[in-house]
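During the no-cost extension, the postdoctoral fellow (Dr. R.K.) reprocessed legacy sequence entries with the updated structure-token encoder. One reprocessed record is reproduced below for audit purposes.
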Amino acid sequence: MNYNVAIDGPSGAGKSTIAKMLAKKLNIVYLDTGAMYRCLGLKALREQLVLADIASVQTMLDNTKVDIKISQDNNRIFLDGEEVTNLIRTEIVGKSASDISALPIVRIAMANIQRQIAIKQSCILDGREIGSYVLPNAQIKIFLTASKEIRAKRRYMQLQEQGVDTTFKKVLDSLTQRDYNDSSRSFAPLIKVADAIEVDTTELTLQQTVDKIYLIIKEKIFG
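Re-encoded structure tokens follow.
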């Protein structure tokens, strides 16, 4: 039996890391939806795209190929044939991805691709509107959250480990702006849907969070 797990939540909640660990534990596919938007954010930066010019955005979408080579715990991301798996993880690309993902034509295009992948196999998708818009019929919906300060601290430490030169304040300011962008956009905003189970990770370790969600999935799918 195929089933889908939707994990939504604000930036820095640990969705991608937790989804990867769960996919491995459950022996199902992990689809990094955020990477798809980051690809578009990177291309928009490279082309100095004016997002208010919807016709130009549509032209970019029509001439952009995003490929994801999927495995259980890792996705390799390709933009127009170029591997950008690491390039898309910078703060500036993240901000650009947040901006461009607010456009309905962008979310519709990406959601269609995500649905086609999810319908073929059991998988975990994480994002902002997976449970509300992309996969409203997902068997398990998780809303993953944590305090803003904890989310910023985790993201800052991650960037430090990657050798990215930034400050905690910059990360916190960027996260605050992304929270606003994600929750205030008119089309498919970040929301906690009624049938989602909220998991607050502020006081939980990574492994504790994975174990908690795993038990939720196990009970709902396997009884």
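The mean pLDDT is 92. The first strand starts at residue 4 and ends at 8. The remaining legacy entries will be reprocessed before the final report is submitted.
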